[in-house]
Specification:
alpha/beta; 17% strand; rod-shaped
């Protein structure tokens, strides 16, 4: 979207003097200034207003991962596996990978979901993954765009 605004500005302002005539330099200057303000405004909206969620995702995932940090063998199952694994020091897999694997023995396994998370099971899917296990459920509040986390730790 931003590139199209810049192209329209450049092409439109470049064509304006021919349409307005040489004696209307003030009109051309005013339109050029308005165009520059539009480009600046569009850049600000794109950078800060229209896309706050990606910047705020780590405000959800990082605190949860740090709280789940362990020096013991651990496995996090989440829709955000690279970041969660990195900050927790645990191995991390997606839910699809977890369904296809045999979980390692003597490893703490935590299924992490977020209020507004992606690539995670619904309540019924979570029950299927936890059936037959003793489960400890922990809710971890966050300030990020993914919302609070719920951690189901299999015992």
């Amino acid at each position: 979207m931003y590139l199209s605004v810049v192209l329209l500005l450049v092409l439109g302002v470049g064509k304006l003097p021919g349409l307005a005539g040489e004696r209307n330099r003030r009109v051309t200057a005013a339109v050029g200034l308005l165009g520059l303000l539009t480009v600046f405004g569009t850049a600000q909206v794109t950078a800060y207003g229209a896309m706050p969620a990606p910047d705020r995702l780590s405000d959800s995932t990082v605190p949860v991962a740090r709280q789940l940090h362990s020096t013991e063998p651990c496995l996090l199952v989440t829709g955000y596996e690279p970041e969660m694994g990195w900050y927790s020091g645990c191995d991390a897999v997606t839910y699809a990978q977890y369904r296809a694997m045999t979980p390692p023995a003597r490893t703490r396994i935590s299924l992490v979901t977020f209020e507004h998370g992606r690539l995670q099971p619904d309540a019924a899917g979570l029950r299927r993954l936890t059936d037959g296990h003793r489960v400890t459920v922990t809710r971890i509040p966050t300030r990020g765009s993914a919302g609070d986390a719920t951690v189901h730790t299999l015992r």
